[in-house]
Amino acid sequence: MPKNPFIRELLWLFLILLVALPLSGGLSALIDHFPDLNASLDQELKAPELRAVLLYVLTVLGCYLVRLGAYAASRVARLELAE
Question: Exposed site from 52, 54, 57, 78, fewest CB < 10 Å?
Fold first, then answer.
């Protein structure tokens, strides 16, 4: 991993953007198996492209929040070990 924090975060962002593509596709396929949820989403969003973009954005945010949580846990663990 690079020592520069900006480069490290940029690499994490690119990785998350790549990982979010199949995850959002899987989430969309999972939603398709529930007819009631699928119909209500189609009725609310009006466009299937909007649904795909919304799922992608939610997946990116979820992945990044998990990444931040893991980073925070590692920091806390490092502080505990230092004491």
Answer: 78
**What separation in angstroms does the CA of 70 have from each of 25, 39, 42, 67?**
24, 36, 34, 5
pLDDT in tens, 40-75: 888 888 888 899 999 999 999 999 999 999 999 999
CA–CA distance, 75 with 58 (Å, rounded to integer): 26
* Residue 2 confidence (pLDDT): 75
DSSP letter for each residue of the chain = --SSHHHHHHHHHHHHHHHHHHHHHHHHHHHHT-HHHHHHHHHHH--HHHHHHHHHHHHHHHHHHHHHHHHHHHHHHHHHHH-
**pTM for the model:** 0.82
Question: Domain extents for the chain?
Answer: 5-82
3 phi-psi bin (left φ>0, alpha ψ -120 to 50, beta other) = alpha
